[in-house]
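new request in #modeling-help
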Amino acid sequence: MKIAVCVNHVPDTETKVRVASDGKTIDPSGVNYVLNPYDEFAVEEALKIREKNNGEILAVSLGNDSNKETLRKVLAMGVDKAVLLKAAAEQDSYSVAKAISEYLKTYEPDLILIGKQSIDSDNSQVGGLLAEFLGLPSVSVVVKLEIADGIAKAEREIEGAHEHVELTLPCVISTQRGLNEPRYPSLKGIMQAKKKTIEEVDAQQTEPRVKIIGMKSPPEKQPGKIVGEGPDAVPELVRLLREEAKVV
Amino acid sequence: MSVTILAVAEQRNGEIKKTSFETVRKAREIADGLGGTFKALLIGNSINDTAKELGKYGAGSVIAVNNDKLTHYSTTAYTKVVGEIVKKEGAEIVFFPATALGKDLAPCVAARVDGAVAADCTELKIEGGDIIATRPVYAGKALIDVKIDAPVKIFTLRPNVFPAGEPSGDEATIEEASVDISDDDLKAKVTEMTETSKGKLDVTEADIIVSGGRGLKSPDNFHLIEELADVLDAAVGASRAVVDAGWRPHDEQVGQTGKTVSPALYVAVGISGAVQHLAGMSSSKYIVAINKDKDAPIFQIADYGVVGDALEIVPVLKNELKKTLGK
Ligand SMILES: Cc1cc2nc3c(=O)[nH]c(=O)nc-3n(C[C@H](O)[C@H](O)[C@H](O)COP(=O)(O)OP(=O)(O)OC[C@H]3O[C@@H](n4cnc5c(N)ncnc54)[C@H](O)[C@@H]3O)c2cc1C
Ligand SMILES: Nc1ncnc2c1ncn2[C@@H]1O[C@H](COP(=O)(O)O)[C@@H](O)[C@H]1O
């Protein structure tokens, strides 16, 4: 079985976002980049599926040289091969999905695993776009997965319920927290990853379709008041909620 | 030629949720602003009566696609239906609610109809005939203004941000449309649905959220949160710490790697206010924090704070609210 996992390289969750001088992007100084948290679940799931079914896992990341750090990490987790699709800085989900789909056409995976969402652009789009570009079915926000006999049975999280979805392989599956517990790279894994080469390919270029005009900080929330201490403060809190905020 | 604008509404078991009304209302307003033709689209089986309800929120006519193969959601089949209707109507602008369904469907439709999606928009305005959408990025730590440059422009609208407004007495005209669904279109299909929240509200849909964190000390104390939520008709949320500890299901997690919410009222109980938690809830209109540490970061963004032991305060708060709300 051939599995492709798409991994993005994003600012970590601690990042304090400051708008850069171009007024469109974030100031990268002092920002620490990591493997996109949702993609850890995709990688872990790929490793588990390979343990059962054998085969090979290819990790794909689109971006620049710094994405190699993330590719190195997933190699250390146990991924077999890694490719960096080198691309210009300005991308949107459409251009990312297009470039990855073009590359994967030659790899012909049986399964494509991706994260539910990049935690930088918060788009949740690459999976659906990629699936359609490749003419494959997809299921998103998956918290449970079983694969057997060319059929994937997935549970997907929706508002207040889980949808049980059945789909035929090859397909695209986007992973959500709850699916598994991502492993840490072992020391052996880290050593082996150092010896592996990361293939570098120029990504097929497509114009981004969602153009960023400007970026701004959200309106700052001013600290309010401490109403009081202990249960004695409750009547005043309720009064404020009713009379000042008018929310209850 | 006037532009055609479509709003895709969502029904589950013959019921339309508020998020779809919000989307229809906003889409109608944009359509009026652009001087365009506006229609809503509803997909399912035997949904004509349900579809009429969209009229109360501004949809003069609703395209209803009925098919027994569309009773349950299927990404592949629904993508086909929306794609065909977009092409048939010549729609250039399409709106979806940014619900689980809308988020799943919109990118697939975009690929089929040569479009692109501005996801999870929180503001839309018309400038020089173009729609400028504002959307949060980095879990709300920044906002971007975007413009779509594609033949079909698709927007998903964040729940709970655009007011649905009061329902009018209007009934929509139903235009039935049929789309052939073959087995090949059902390569992905829902075979079963299991409720996870026993009929309770999802945090993304709720006007009020009561969230609990590690300050509750033990999962056995979470009934305090649930009871307070009950009195307020609120959804229950949680910090990642208590989700990781297995006290709460992860679909309740609020934060950068959980759900992003913007309710009218967010009550944080025993939650310290780590950046990852704040990222998911700081756009709430009002924030109440109950925490025994007066220096907890959550107080930095709370409108109203109470310092003290949650285990003592929450029951008193519940009773006080019960009394004032006459419950
Ligand atoms: C990659 C990454 C992603 C993350 N994503 C998220 C996310 O999406 N959502 C999220 O929430 N977190 C997330 N986190 C975790 C986050 O950093 C915090 O660890 C977490 O939010 C802390 O949860 P907490 O406030 O419940 O617990 P704590 O930080 O332990 O805080 C408990 C609070 O309860 C108070 N307290 C204790 N006893 C009482 C009492 N009796 N009465 C009242 N108050 C009391 C304490 O003063 C304290 O402020 C993420 C972390 C990482 C690294
Ligand atoms: N630049 C990228 N390179 C590789 N994979 C990506 C990239 N951007 C997004 N993805 C994948 O697509 C998923 C959804 O991303 P998004 O649509 O950007 O929210 C991510 O979790 C990744 O698995």
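bot summary: Residues 18-34 of chain B form the longest helix (17 residues).
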